[in-house]
UniProtKB/TrEMBL annotation:
It holds the Pfam family GTP_cyclohydroI. It comes from Pedobacter antarcticus 4BY. One of its GO terms (biological process) is tetrahydrobiopterin biosynthetic process. Belongs to the GTP cyclohydrolase I family. Homopolymer. This is GTP cyclohydrolase 1. It comes from the Bacteria. Its EC number is 3.5.4.16. The keyword Transcription regulation does not apply. Gene3D superfamilies: 1.10.286.10, 3.30.1130.10. Zn(2+) binds at residues 100, 103, 171.
Length: 211
């Protein structure tokens, strides 16, 4: 079979990334569309600064949506360890970069995630990895929040999961309503986090400046 792959963009790590290279057929096809789009926008796609732009955009878009090729549950399962620890584990300030599915413009900010182990803990890096796996797709912030919660709950089966995401949406800043400073917060909880005290502890931990 012809190898249509070039230019590694992902880590080759335990097969997390099924397609870990740019696909040359896709790159060529998306590039061709962007050459046309540049013309439609009144630009000259042949001028020096733009000559490679369609290909760059094609690769950037593949990178920005590479989450479709990742299996978040598999990422979590690859580092689950039996451990007798039943206090809340909080990973906060995880950078999020995603693209809204309505305008294909970026939204970005931070995710704060907690779980209460129920026999198993997970390798800490896997939490930001699954954030990325879901964020690097066309998304809405609400679905991103729920997908992260559900993945952790179903895979790790902890006593509870909490996810809070705060993001700025470029479609609300650079265009449309043009609000430069608005931040959208979404949250999703399971299990123990239904209790006010547990939820309050999580919210205190993510807002506290412990450094
Ligand atoms: N709920 C939600 N809405 C989003 C998200 N990202 C973008 N949107 C909104 O999606 C909506 C799409 O609405 P439309 O009225 O079809 O699009 P539009 O005419 O471009 O709307 P304006 O942005 O108000 O100009 C807008 O209100 C966006 O602000 C998201 O993550 N969650
Ligand atoms: Zn949008």
């Amino acid at each position: 079979m012809e190898d249509h792959t070039i230019d590694n963009f992902g880590e080759e790590n335990e097969g997390y990334i099924k397609i870990d290279r740019y696909n040359t057929v896709k790159t060529r096809s998306i590039s061709n569309h962007y050459t046309d789009i540049l013309s439609q926008l009144g630009e000259n796609p042949q001028r020096e600064g733009l000559i490679k732009t369609p290909e760059r955009v094609a690769k950037a878009l593949q990178y920005l949506t590479h989450g479709y090729d990742l299996d978040p549950a598999k990422i979590l399962r690859s580092a689950m360890f039996k451990e007798d620890y039943s206090q809340m584990v909080v990973v906060k300030d995880i950078e999020v970069y995603s693209m809204c599915e309505h305008h294909m413009l970026p939204f970005f900010g931070k995710a704060h995630i907690a779980y209460i182990p129920n026999g198993h803990i997970v390798g800490l890096s896997k939490i930001p990895r699954i954030v990325d796996a879901f964020a690097r797709r066309l998304q809405v912030q609400e679905r991103l929040t729920n997908e992260i919660r559900d993945c952790i709950q179903e895979t790790l089966q902890p006593a509870g999961v909490a996810v809070v995401i705060e993001c700025q949406h470029m479609c609300m800043a650079m265009r449309g309503i043009q609000k430069q400073n608005s931040v959208t917060t979404t949250s999703a909880f399971t299990g123990e986090f239904a209790h006010d005290r547990t939820r309050a502890e999580f919210l205190r931990l993510i807002t506290a400046n412990l450094h």
